[in-house]
Amino acid sequence: MEFGLLGAVEVRHGGEVVEIGHVRQRSVLVALLLEEGRPVPVDRLLDRVWGERAPLRARETLYGYVSKLRKVLDLDIERSPAGYHLEVDSSRVDLFRFRALVREREFDSALALWRGEALDGLDSPWFDAQRESLHAERLAAELDRNDVALAQGRHTELLPSLRLRADALPHDERLAAQLMLALHRTGNDAEALRHYDIVRRSLADELGADPSKPLQDLHQRILVGSESEDERPPGPRQLPAPHPWFTGRTGELAALGSSGTVVITAIGGSGGMGKTALALHWAHRHLGEFPDGQLYVNLRGFDPSAPPTAPETVLREFLEALGEETIPAGLDARAARYRSVVAGRRLLVVLDNARSTEQVVPLLPGPDATVLVTSRLKLAGLVAAHGARSVSLDVLHPAEAHEFLVARLGAARVAAEPGVVTDLVSWCGGLPLALSIVAARAAMEPDFPLAAFAEELRDQPLDALDAGEIGTNLRAVFSWSVAALSDEAARAFGLLGTVQTADVSLTAAAALLDRPVSRTRMLVRELENAHLVQQHVPGRYRMHDLVGLYAADLSADAGTRLADFYAATTRAAALTLEPHKVLPEHESGHALAFDSNAAAMAWFDAEHACLLTEQRHALERKEFAVAWLIGRALNNYHLRRGRTHDDTEAWLVALSAAEALGDSLKQGTAHMCLGANYVELGQSPLGHSHFERSLEMFGETDNHEAHGGAHRAIAWAAEFEGDLEKALDHSLAGLEQFRLAGKEIREAESLNEVGWRYACLGRYAQARTFCEDAMALNRRLGHAEGSAATLDSLAHIAHHDGRHTDAVAHYREAVALYRELDNSAELATVLEHLGDVHAAAGEKELARETWERALELYREQGRDADATALLARL
Question: Which tens digit of pLDDT belongs to each residue from 22-68?
Fold first, then answer.
C-alpha cells in the first residue's frame, strides 16, 4: 500500500489506485497519516476534518469514516483513551520519503516525488495550514538543491527554473542570490545586476527594507567581476570532532533543519541523552553552510568541578578567535563588539551545556549567524523572548539503540547473542549514555560474553552503569541535574521515584508530595524544565526507568499517601456511577470529588493502568483493605467499558486481599464476579466453580443482598450459556432475596431481568408486566442505568409484538441514557439491537449505519466474538 500526499491524495495497492471515499473520509485518513503513529484525540480529529463546519452528530459520522477506512484499506486504525492512531511504514508515504531524502541531501529525488499541490482537494483550515507548511518545506528543499547544483557547476541547467521561481517569489533574497549567481556564471552580468535592482526596488517600495548584507555583498562582487569570497580571512574552526558512533535521531536532525537568517535552537534533554552528540553531528553535516567559521564553547552549566563559565569570559575567547586584538572591558561592550564583528558572516555558534537563558543571551550574535544551544534545562526564556526553536531529546528507539551497539561492538558480536542484546537495549531504556557505558565496558573486555554485562545490569542497574570515570557514571551525571534543583523540588524528585506506576497525574503527585495542586504544578514544572520528568501527555508525568531508580535512592518516606489517594478517589468515582453501592470508607486529604458520570468515567479512563498497578503493589505491601477496595470499586467501570479481562485481573487480586482479611462476604463477592467473568471468557467450568464457592461463602453470612447478587450472577451465566429456564429461576430467586433485603434499586434491576428472561422465552405478556414495573420503580428512584437497561428490554418486547415505532423510540432513549452515563459496553449492545429493528423494517441504510457504530465500539472493547458476528451480518 502506497500513500500519496504530495499532490492529489491517493492510495495505491500493487500500482492500482484504491477508492478511499469522499473528501471527508480522505481527510480522516490524511489527518492520521500526518501524525506518523501518534494518537489524535477525537475532538482534535473533528476540528482537523471540519473546522467550524462540523455537522450534527459529527462524532458518529467520524466513527463511520474510520470503520469504512479500516474495511476498504485493511488498516489497523487503533483507538485508545489518547485518541485514534495509525501506524504505517514511513517508506510507504511519499511525504515521509521526501523528508528522508532531503535529510540525506538527495534533493532531486526528493523533489521528483511532488505531483502538484500538496493535499490537493482537502479544504479545512487545518489542511490549508498544513498545505502552506508543506509548500514551505518544498521551497526550502528547492533552495538547498539549487545551492548544491550551483556548487557543482550546473548553473545553465538551473537557469530556467530559477527565473520562473524568482518571478513567483520576488521577495525571496536567497532565491534572488541564486539567480544572480547563475546569470553571472553564464556571462549575463547585466541581467544579474538588473535583477538585483528589481529586488531592491521591490523591497523598498513594498516593505520599506533594503536587501540583506549577503545579497548586497554578492551584488558588489559581480560589479567588480568576482563572485569569490576567498579574499576574506579564514574564520575560526573550533568544533570538536563528532561522536564516532552517532546513530539514529533522524527526526531531531530534521527538526534542526538547515541554517537560516535567524535560527537559535535550544536542544534540551536530561543528562546522558546525547545533546552534545546531536549538536556536533548536525554541525559537521552542515559545515559547508558556514564558510566564515564555527565557534564552540562548553559553558559548564552543570559541571561539578567548576562554576558555569561567565559570558564575559566566553566573549573574550570568541573575539580573540575572530581576530580581534583589542578586547573591550565589560560585558555589554564585549557583546556589542562581538555582534559587530560577526555581522554579515555566515557563522555557526555552538553554546554547549548552558545553565540558564541569562548565560546565553549575551552570546547571541546578529541575524546572519546560526546558534545551537544545548542544556539540561528547557531554557523557556530563550524560546519566549528570542524566538528559539526547542528540540527536546527523548530516548533512542530500540532499533536505533540496537544500531548503536552494532556500530560500537561490531555486527558479529551483537549477532552472536541476539536475546542478550535485546535485554541490554531494554534495560538501558534507550538512554544514550547508558548504552555508551555498557558498550565501553564490553569493548574493554572483548572476551567476555555480553550476557555477563546483561546479568549485572539486570541485578544492579546503576552499579553496572559506572565505568569508573567522571562522565561515565550514571549516578554522577544524574546528580549534577539534581544539584541544580531547589530543596523542595529535590525532595519531590525523590518521592516521585517511589511511584511504581507507569506515570502519575498531577493530582496524584499532589497527594504523594502532600502539597496543594498549584504548588505541585510548580515543583513538577521545575523537574520538567530540568528534564528529570516528562509530561508525556497533558497533566501526566513519567520518569525514565533509570532516572526513577536514582530518584528512589534519594527518596524520603511518603507513607501510604499515594495508595490512600487512589483508594479514596476510586471509591468516590465508583459512588458517582452507582450512588447506592456499598463500599468501605477510606480517608485521604487529597481525594477528588466528581460532579457527573462523565467526569468519573474520564478519571477512570485516565488512571486505569495506574489503578491496576497500585492494586497489585498494595497486595504486595499487605495493604489488603486498599487492594480490596480498588478491585471492588473498578467493577462497574469495567462493565461499562466491556473490559472483562481487566476486571478478572482486578478481582483475582481483590480475592487474595479478601482471603488475607478473612472476610467471608468479600471473598464471596469476589468469587461471584469472577464466576461471571470466566463464563463470559469461555471458561465455564472455572466460572461455575467460583459460583459454587461464592454460595458457600455467602452461606456463612445472613445477607439477603449478597445471596440475591449470587443468584443474579448465576442467572446471567445461565442465559449466556443458553439455559433460559435456569436463568429465569435464578432471576426470580434473586428478586425475592432483594425484596427481603429491602434493596429497591436491586429490586428494580431484578424486575427487569425477570422480564427480559420471560421475553427470551417468548412469554411477552409476562415480560412486559415485569419490565413496566421495573421502569416505574427505576424512574421513581432516579436510577438512570436501570432505566436504560429496562428500555432495552421494553424495546425488544415491542419489536416482537410488532410495535416498530415503540421499539425504535425505546432503543433511542436507551442509547441517549447510555451515552449520558458513558457506558460504552451497553451502548454497543443497544446499537446492535436498534440496527436489528431497522433491518427487520427494511430500513437497510439505517441498519447498516447503526451496526457500524456498534462494530466500532465492539472492536475498541476487544469484544472479538461480538465484532465477528456483527461483521458477518454487515
Answer: 899 999 999 999 998 888 988 899 999 998 888 877 888 888 899 89
DSSP conformation letters of 56-103: TTHHHHHHHHHHHHHHHH---EEEETTEEEE---GGGBHHHHHHHHHH
Query: Cell 443474579, residue?
Result: 712
Residues 35, 130 contacting (CB under 8 angstroms) = no
Segments of 483-525 assigned E as strands: 504-505
**Residue 264 pLDDT greater than 80, yes or no:** no
- Domain 250-392 matching CATH 3.40.50.300: the answer reads yes
Helices (H), 721-783: 724-741, 744-760, 764-781
Query: For residues 301 and 356, is the Cβ–Cβ distance under 8 A?
Result: yes
Per-residue confidence (pLDDT) for residue 546, from 0 to 100: 84
CATH class of 2-133: mainly alpha
Tracing cell 561539578 back to the chain, one arrives at 304
pLDDT at 833: 95
Q: Among 56, 63, 57, which Cα is nearest to 857's? A: 63
According to DSSP H, which parts of 394-505 are helical? 398-409, 411-416, 418-428, 432-444, 450-459, 461-464, 474-483, 487-496
| 42-50 helix and 125-151 helix, angle to the nearest 10 degrees | 80
Q: What is the pTM of this model?
A: 0.61
CA distances from 482 to 175, 274, 551 (A): 48, 18, 9
Pair type for strands 77-80 and 16-18: unpaired
Rounded distance, CA 727 to CA 760, Å?
10
Q: Class assignment of domain 765-874?
A: mainly alpha
Q: Round to whole Å and give the CA distance between 444 and 519.
A: 48
Q: In this structure, are strands 77-80 and 83-86 parallel, antiparallel, or unpaired?
A: antiparallel
Give CA–CA dist 645/680, Å, rounded: 10
Rounded to whole angstroms, how far apart are CA atoms 145 and 154? 11
Non-local CB neighbours of 286 within 8 Å, separated by 6+ positions = 258, 259, 348
Residues 135 and 199: their CA atoms lie apart, in Å, by 22
Task: Note the CATH architecture for domain 153-223.
Answer: Alpha Horseshoe (1.25)
Q: How far apart are CA 650 and CA 721, in angstroms?
A: 24
Confidence category of residue 466, pLDDT binned at 50, 70, 90 = confident
Q: Which is nearest to 627 in space by CA: 616, 637, 638?
A: 616
CA distance linking residue 824 with residue 639, whole number of Å? 9
Q: Would the pLDDT of 810 be above 80?
A: yes
| Whole-Å CA distances, 581 to 330, 742, 746 | 73, 14, 10
Do residues 294 and 322 lie in contact, with contact meaning Cβ atoms separated by under 8 Å? no
Take residue 359 and report the three cell numbers written for it.
548565560
Q: Residue 788 and residue 816: Cα distance in Å, rounded?
A: 9
CATH topology of domain 485-558: Arc Repressor Mutant, subunit A (1.10.10)
